[in-house]
Every structure is written in C-alpha cells, then in structure tokens.
Amino acid sequence: MKKELKLMKGNEAIGEAAIRAGADAYFGYPITPQSEILEYLMAEKPHERTGMVVLQAESEVAAINMVYGGAACGRKIITSSSSPGISLKQEGLSYIAGSELPCLVVNVVRGGPGLGTIQPSQSDYFQACKGGGHGDYRLIVLAPSSVQEMYDFVKLGFDLAFKYRNPAMILTDGALGQMMEKVWLEEQQPRMNEFPEWATTGKKPGKERTVVTSLDLDSAMQEKFNQKLQEKYRELEAKEVRYEAIDCDDAEYLLVAYGTSSRICQKSVQLAREKGIKLGLLRPITLYPFPKKEIGEMCGRLKGILSVEMSAGQMVEDVRLSVDGKVKVDHFGRMGGIIPSAEEIVNALEQKIIGG
Amino acid sequence: MSQQTENNDIVKEENLVFKKTNVLLDKVMHYCPGCGHGTAHRLIAEVIEEMDIQSECIGITPVGCSVLMYNYLDIDMQEAAHGRAPALATAIKRLQPEKFVFTYQGDGDLAAIGTAETIHAANRGENFTIFFINNGIYGMTGGQMAPTTLPNMKSSTSPYGRDVKMMGNPLKMTELVAQLPGSYYVTRQAVHTPAAVRKAKKAIRKAIENQKLEKGLSLVEIVSNCNSGWKMTPLQSNKWMEENMFPFYELGDLKVDGGMAK
User: Fold this and answer.
1) Residue among A66, A75, A209 whose CB faces B74 most closely
2) Which of A11, A315, B145, B154 could in theory staple to A177 by disulfide, Cβ–Cβ 3.0 to 4.6 A?
3) Minimum distance, in Å, between the CA of residue B121 and any CA atom of chain A
4) How many residue contacts between A and B have a Cβ separation below 8 Å?
C-alpha cells in the first residue's frame, strides 16, 4: 500500500487519522492539551476532502451527545477531550454503551483532580477502564506510546468499536499529544455508503422501525440485556488483548507500564541490565481488556513486578489481580504532571522490589 | 350493549369520516387520561402520514413523560439523555440532511437541564424541528416544580406555591429562542379544544415542512395540561390552563419565516 511520511504532533496525527479512516463526523470542545485535534480538523477542511462533518459544540456534554446521535445513524463518529472534559462525557458514554453503539473517544490526559494541571498524567485509568459512567459497562481502551500509534489506533479503535458495537477510547496523555514524531500515513479510506441494520436511517417500507434506546423498565429484560453486555466483554477479554513484551524472555524482574511511562521504562530496562539486573517490560496496549492472563502466566518465573504509572497507582490494581498474590507487586509513580526519569524508576525497583 | 351494536352497524367504509393514522401504532398509551401528550403525538403522526415522509423521519424522545414516545410512532427513533435531544438532532440532521428530524421535549428537559443544548442548537440555526410540551411541571417524577411552573403555583417541591423570591422565575424559553438569529419559525399552540387542535396541526406541519427550506430551527411550543400533577380533573385542568397558563404563555406565532411576528 502506498504510504506517506510526515512529521506530526500526536494530536494532529489523531485528526489526520480520523479523516483518512473515513470518519463521518468529529464533535468536540476546546481543552488543553488536545485542542490541536479540533484546530487541525478545522484547518484541513475535511468537509471538502471527504464530506466529514466537523463541529465545535457548546460543551463536552453536547459533543458526546452529538456523538450519540451520529453513532445511532450507523456512522463513524469521533470526539476528543482531556480529563475534566472526559468527566463531562461520562453520562453520554454510558448511554452509548447502553445502546450498544460504536464510537471513538480520545482522552489526552492531564493531571487532576479538579482543574488540576495541563501537564501530562495517567490518572484517568480508573475512569477509562472501570466504567466511568453509571451502570455495568466497559470501554475498549487503547494506549498508544508513540505518535505513530496515536495515528494507527484511530482506525483500530473504529474497527473494534464497530465489531463489538461498543465505545472505544484512546487513552493517551499531554506528552504524546504534544510531541512530534514521524508518522507513516495510510491511504484515504472511503466513508461508508451502506449502514448497519441497527442504524436510524429512516424506516424502510415493509420493515420494522429502528429504535435506539438504553431504557427497559422490565427488570427481567434489563437483566437479560446486561448479561448480553457481559458476554460481549468476556469475548473481548478472550480475543482482543494486545500488549508488547520487551526483554521478557530471561527477565527476573518486570516493569508494567503503558503510554508515556512505557517509553521511559524502556530506558530503565537498559540501565538496569547494564547493572546486571535482568529486567523486562510488559507494555499493555489494550488497557481494557487488560493482559491479565499473560502477566499471570509470566509471574511464575519472576521475583517481582513494579507497575509504573504517572498516577498514585491505578493500573497496579489490575497487575495485582493478574498475579493473584503469587509474586510481589508494587507501584511507582509521579503525579501532578511530572514524568518520572529512567533512573528514578530503577531506584524504585531496587528499593521497593529487589531490596524490599 | 344495544348502543354498541348500533355503533358497529354504522362503522361501514362509506360512513367513515375519520381514520386513525397508520403512523400511530396500535398500542395503549401510558399517558394519564386527559393529558395532552396523546393528542400532540397523534397530530405529529398525522402530519407525517399526510406529508408521506414516514420513511424519511427520525424522531428523538426526551427523558420525562414522553420518554416512551418511540413505542407509539411507527418511525425510526432515538431516545436521548435528559435535555440532550437537540445535540442528538444536530448530529443526525447534519449527517442525514435529506431526512426530517425532530425532537419532542417537555419543559424540564428543554428549559432546565437542556437549556444550553436548546439555545445553542437554535443559535447555530440547526435545520430541525423541536416540539416543546409545556405543562409547567415534572409529570413523570411525580409533579415537582419545573422551570415553567407559574408564580405561586403549587407542586410537590413548591408545596406552598412557587415563591419567585426563593425559587426564581418561570422561564419563557420560546421567547428566548425567537430572539435568536438561527430560529426561523417559533410558535406557541395548545391542543385542548378542536379549534386549538386544528391550529396546532397547521403549525406542526409548517414546522416540519420548513426543513426543506434549510433556513434554521423551527420550534412549536404546546402549552398543555397535567391533570394528575396539578391534582385536578381533566376538565378542571383545561379550565385552569386557560385561566392561568395562557395569560402567562400567550398563544400564537412569535416568529414566522425568520421575522418577529409581534
């Protein structure tokens, strides 16, 4: 396939990827550090390139409900925001999951809680992976660690969202959103011209009407629907786990980290090995479904695991559940928008895991 | 019993002067007897049939008494989160501009929690239709004070009457929408008498037909009763509505073909 190489910001890569993946619409609201996505899309005039709709909404609440309306029409819809804005989108996401609709949401995470900081953080893991809004539902969560993956995961996110009729999220952070790297761009994919049977495109004569709703006042029916959702999540957990294992074959110790943290951890692995510590890195690419089985299988030959996150320790809970007490697990992280150094991580490994 | 037999005898094809529209499904509505929602639903359904646009319509239901409207109309429908119907409609109409898109919202949905979505959709000049049922109360949740509850009017959360000093003033959203450059047709109607029904139906048809012009938002407010919430008989509630609601929410056109009516 013909490809094109460009130097881009992570946020710009998301915008370009949305156009090239054949997205039908983007609805968003400005917030640092992801406003370049909306700016890039407006400057690119996708309505001329592909007919894609781009609209600046009056709020994140309106934006996610525009996503809901568009998704129910069977279209490929994307929105993006950063932590405080993603909090506002949670109600809409619950409705979208409860109506079994596909869509793609990008969270370029900044430090919290509250207005927090505009610097990068990974403190929205719980919100992204454990539900976020009300009710028993899950998002498919992808964690890129390069600008190339920011680009690639837009198409992957749409594909998974449509395959499972479930909202997908790219969980990234301000560092990846703002950094520039080279990106290989795919050829333009055409927008869909046929729509799924569940889409509201107008009642076809002689056919049943289409109703999109998440309401069922009959508890027995509502429970049945919830069971169906849970079956879908079990299928996701069985089939869609993605991760990268770096220097894990002979590893005695393991770092688990995603996104920006995983990039720093690659350097930490190198530094530790120079010191004679057999260290590996497991980078979850899907945070939900989490590579639980893979970490569980690996832990038998490990002496300890350090989960590294730019948070107070959120993913570490999933790491602990994966090893089920078989090996020592601890957390190291920085908060408030601070990115840890490779040396800090090795020191933490030595103190908390090796020496601890 | 003999009366019924006689009635059945006269229901012959040549004697029929009225037939229920096919766009309304044969389902028992959950609305309280005497409520205006059923009439408003029927008028919208009749207009859809008369315009022959059943296959081109997408309706959006609110959260409130009319949340289950999708059970009654035989068209494609989506159910929105509370107050967000205009955001859904914005996306649906922009993605399928050839379709007829409408929202159907109550006063709590449109004029309280959905104020921002309503005002901004109108101000952007979104080319869909809003049907706004204003009965001055939250009916579904058991008769609480709404943004449109009249001064001194009793509700379960203003049990001694709405004290405007403490609880604020009723909001005239229709007047607000009419002021915005993006609205094209704004009118206030009722459905409590045959004459009002005929006028309301004309307004509903105009508000849907306007979408072909691509000139902006059309909004039809229907001032209606909530006999259960108001704790009155249907007849009493209609009389109370005429005497109290209509002087505050004056019936008639506010904006026609993009120009202020008065």
Assistant:
1) A209
2) A11
3) 9
4) 119
CA distance B89 to chain A (A): 7
Q: How far is CA B35 from the centre of its chain?
A: 12
Q: What is the pLDDT at residue A22?
A: 98
Q: Give the pLDDT confidence of A279-335 residue by residue, as tens digits.
A: 999 999 999 999 999 999 999 999 999 999 999 999 999 999 999 999 999 999 999
Which tokens is A27 given? 């609805």
Look up the CATH number of the domain holding residue B161: 3.40.50.970
Is A228's pLDDT higher than 50? yes
Average pLDDT of A332-342? 97
Tokens 């020592």, located at residue: A328
Judge whether residue B3 has pLDDT over 60.
no
Domains of chain A: 4-186+230-237 (3.40.50.970), 243-354 (3.40.50.920)
Contacts of A68 (CB under 8 A, 6+ apart): A92, A95, A96, A99, A101, A103, B78, B80, B81, B84, B87, B88, B91
Closest CA to B42 of B197, B224, B187, B241: B197
Alpha-carbon gap, residue A263 to A176, rounded angstroms: 10
Instruction: Tell me how far apart the alpha carbons of residues A229 and A136 are, in angstroms, rounded to a whole number.
Output: 8
Give the gap in angstroms from C-alpha A82 to the nearest C-alpha of chain B. Answer: 20
Residues B153, B118, B159, CA angle at the centre, nearest 5°? 15
Of B56, B87, B94, the CB nearest to A53: B94
A218 pLDDT higher than 60: yes
Best mutation target, A73, A79, A204, A216, to test chain B (most B CBs within 10 A): A73
Shortest CA gap A198–chain B (Å): 10
Residue B17 lies in a domain: no
Query: A79-117 pLDDT, tens per residue?
Result: 999 999 999 999 999 999 999 999 999 999 999 999 999
Q: Quickly tell me which residue has 């008989």 as its tokens.
A: B233
In the predicted structure, residue A13 carries a pLDDT above the cut 90: yes
pLDDT at B6: 60
B233 falls within a domain: yes
The ipTM assigned to this model is 0.96
Number of domains, chain B: 1
Q: Does B109 touch chain A (CB under 8 A)?
A: no
Query: Nearest chain A Cα to B88, which residue?
Result: A69
What is the pTM (predicted TM-score) of this model?
Answer: 0.96
Query: What is the signed CA dihedral for A135, A140, A146, A149, rounded to 10 degrees?
Result: -150
Residue B241 inside a domain? The answer is yes
Q: Which domain holds residue B168?
A: 29-260
From chain A residues 193-232, the ones with a CB under 8 A of any chain B CB are 200-205, 209-215
* pLDDT surpasses 50 at A14: yes
- Average of per-residue pLDDT across B23-33: 95
